[in-house]
Structure formats: C-alpha cells, structure tokens
Design a protein that fits this description.
CATH topology of the largest domain: Spore Coat Polysaccharide Biosynthesis Protein SpsA, Chain A
Protein name: Acylneuraminate cytidylyltransferase family protein
Organism: Jeongeupia naejangsanensis
Keywords: Nucleotidyltransferase, Transferase
Shape: globular
Radius of gyration: 19 Å
GO molecular function: nucleotidyltransferase activity
Pfam family, one: CTP_transf_3
Number of strands: 11
CATH superfamily of the largest domain: Spore Coat Polysaccharide Biosynthesis Protein SpsA, Chain A
Order of helices and strands: EEEHEHEHEHEEEEHEH
CATH architecture of the largest domain: Alpha-Beta Complex
Length: about 230
C-alpha cells in the first residue's frame, strides 16, 4: 500500500517485570525506545511517529527523540492488560481527540531494536487487499510435532502434536516463532476486531539475528553482543 498514510506506533508501558526500565535502558548508547523511533523517522512511507505510554519518563525520552506521545490510561498498562486494547485506544485518541485519520497502522515494539528498514518495508508491502494483518516470524528451533511437550494432570509428558502421526521430520509442516519486529494492519480492522488472528494474517520471515525480542537480562545481553558484532 504505497500511496497510503502510514502512522508508526511504539507501545511502551512503564511496569516491565522481566527487565525493569527496559524501554529506556541504553543499548549501544541510546535508549531502547529510540531504535524504533529513529527507524520510523528514516522511512519515507511513515508520516508520523507516536509513542503510547503511561510513564512520564518514557514520554520524556520519546519527545526527546522526536516522537509524539499518546497518554495511555493505567488500566491499559497493567501486566494483565491486552496490548490490542492499547492499539484501539491509540487509534481512537488520534481520530476522536486530535482529528487525525490514516490508512496504515504500523507497530514497532521497542523490544526489537535489531530490525532494519527492509524488514519493515516488506511488512508494509505485504498488507494488500487479501490481508488484514501482517506479522513477522522466524524459523522455529523446536517443532510441536517432534520436540515440544506438554504435561498432563499426572505430570506425564507427551508430544504437543503427537497425534499427527508424522514419522519423519521432513514430512511435518514448517513452523515459525512469532516475533515482535513489526505488525501492520488497518485502523478499522483493529477497532472492529478483538485479536490479530480474527482476520487474515500474512507473515514476513525475519532472520533470528534481527528478531531478538528483549524480555529479560539474558535477551538484553544477546542484543548487545549482536549489536557489537
């Protein structure tokens, strides 16, 4: 959708438990949040960049790097709150409070700083008339058909999809991990649906080295090592 108005969003709440303060922790000399902001600012197809947050410090960093801020209510920033509802809130805020309308919603989570512009452009290009949402994925290191297990009430393990009767690894469907590199959709789909997979979902494959999702200290160290290399 090359002739559409695209707004980029970064949703960054203040209450991270896995890595406190991660959204503004410095990686390679700049706050984690700034990677998504700067990438979006470099892209000709992105018209405006917004950060949705409940946290004053995050908001200050967002403004320092040139993003516009959407104040997120506390009830949409708790550990149990759905980010989908934060997406809906941001769209409503822009439409109802600021009189802004746009065609393409692009989410660039702060926790994936190693993405590149090409990854995001592929996602924007994949949003055609046959898709409602575009997500990014990476090849999975584990397969639910062979080496992923669940346990029953007695504590015994069984293969997650063991009843599929595949005998050889090369016969099973290829599986992917969902990554947080980018999400692309249309505002009306988000407002009128309750989850990503309520619609027709396309995928863009991103190499693992650009799809690191920082959730804890270990992930942060991985990102640091990859950035330095």
């Amino acid at each position: 959708m090359t002739n559409s108005r695209t707004f980029a969003f970064i949703f960054a709440r203040g209450g991270s438990k896995g890595l406190p303060g991660k959204n503004i922790r410095e990686l390679g000399g700049i706050p984690l949040l700034a990677y998504g902001i700067r990438l979006a600012q470099r892209m000709d197809r992105v018209e405006r960049v917004f950060v949705s947050t409940d946290d004053a410090e995050i908001a200050a960093v967002a403004r320092r790097f040139g993003a516009e801020v959407i104040d997120r209510p506390a009830e949409l920033a708790s550990d149990t709150a759905s980010e989908w509802h934060a997406w809906q809130h941001a769209i409503k805020q822009l439409r109802d409070e600021r009189g802004l309308d746009f065609d393409v919603f692009l989410s660039l989570p702060a926790t994936s700083p190693l993405r590149n512009e090409g990854d995001v452009l592929c996602c924007l290009d994949a949003l055609d008339e046959s898709a409602d949402v575009v997500i990014t994925v990476s090849p999975s290191a584990r397969s639910p058909y062979f080496n992923m297990v669940s346990t029953d009430e007695s504590g015994y393990a069984k293969i997650v999809l063991g009843d599929a009767h595949f005998k050889r690894r090369q016969d099973v469907p290829e599986v992917y991990d969902i990554t947080t590199v980018a999400y692309v959709s249309r505002p009306d789909f988000i407002l009128n649906s309750e989850r990503i997979f309520a619609g027709r979902v396309r995928t863009v494959v991103v190499p693992k080295e650009r799809a690191v999702d920082i959730d804890d200290e270990f992930d942060f160290k991985i990102a640091e090592a990859l950035l330095q290399s």
